[in-house]
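[agent] plan:
  1. take the single chain provided in the ticket
  2. run structure prediction with default settings
  3. attach structure tokens to the ticket
  4. add a short note for the reviewer (M.T.)
[agent] executing step 1
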Amino acid sequence: MANSLLSTSTAATTFIIVLLSLFLAGKSQTFSTSLPRTALPRGKQNLTHLHFFFHDVVGGPNATAIRVAAAPITNTSATGFGAVIMMDNLLTVGPEPNSTRVGRAQGMYASADLNDMSFMMVQNYVFDEERYNGSTLSILGRNPILSPLREFPVVGGSGVFRFARGYAEAQTYFLNATNGDAIVEYNVYVLHY
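[agent] step 2 finished; step 3 output follows
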């Protein structure tokens, strides 16, 4: 009987210790913490203007934008509603594909309007140009592709563009009406530290 009581007492003590350690461990971790302003990067914010061309190649053996999903009405919709396209598009200094490369536009766009040709854009500009090598800008917004000038918000960035915010303006430079390939000129204005 003494062994049984001792075993029960040891099990209860072990249970209490484990429960207490879980309780204390849970208390020591927090989801968020307010940081003082001094934790922000020092110095003034920079305003950077980037100018480049976006090459959206949807046709042929070297396509860089490929449809990966469609809705039941995509093929009968006048706007291709529901089509989702993944992309890894070239960004260059000039409109020619063999112009100096500055990076890639990686992400997706989807036909998101039943009545007008408009895409929902979710993309990262991944720069490999010397000064911005490894830095990114994140774009999210509506792209009414038939409008002469479109504007998208810059919602973030990394590397040189950490804490980035701003906007991108896009205008179609070239559109192949037969296969949908396009070259789009971008002017991006970004505030960052």
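[agent] step 4 note for reviewer: Residues 2-28 form the longest helix (27 residues).
[agent] ticket updated
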